[in-house]
Design brief:
By secondary structure, this protein is an alpha/beta fold. It has helices at about 25-35, 60, 65-75, 115-130, 145-155; strands at about 15-20, 50, 55, 80-85, 105-110, 135.
Length: about 160
Amino acid sequence: MTFTGTSRQRGTKMKRAMFIGAIGCGKTTLLQRLKDLTIHYDKTQAVEFYQNIVDTPGEYIEHRRMYTNLATTAMDVDVVLMLQSATDQRLIFPEALSTMFARPVVGVVTKTDVADQAAIDWSSDQLKRAGAHQIFKVSALTGAHTEALRQFLDD
């Protein structure tokens, strides 16, 4: 994997992160928000590299036979971000999924702007069960609470 134009190459300590989550959970939208890009829907069809962020297709987590793709891709990142939409009550991440990565795993609850507190809490609990040690609750669409995640990735 080649990361071109990353902050890491310019001498800063920006973490390389891999986003994983179900189809439509907001991975690409969050990437666009964190990079101050125009927000627009763009279905990720293959692993895409954008500076320090690896955006994976939702199919990689929704189909167990593709888990090896996630494990292999994670070998060249500093942190894995599991994204769970607060509007999706499916069990996306199996318990202890984080053990398949030799990297820290962080959880991100997305779409908090259109969910009630019970749904946000449920999503957060699912991420903890999957092994996330830290949870961010954000709305990529509105930008709510994304600055804390950006700071985490910039540390």
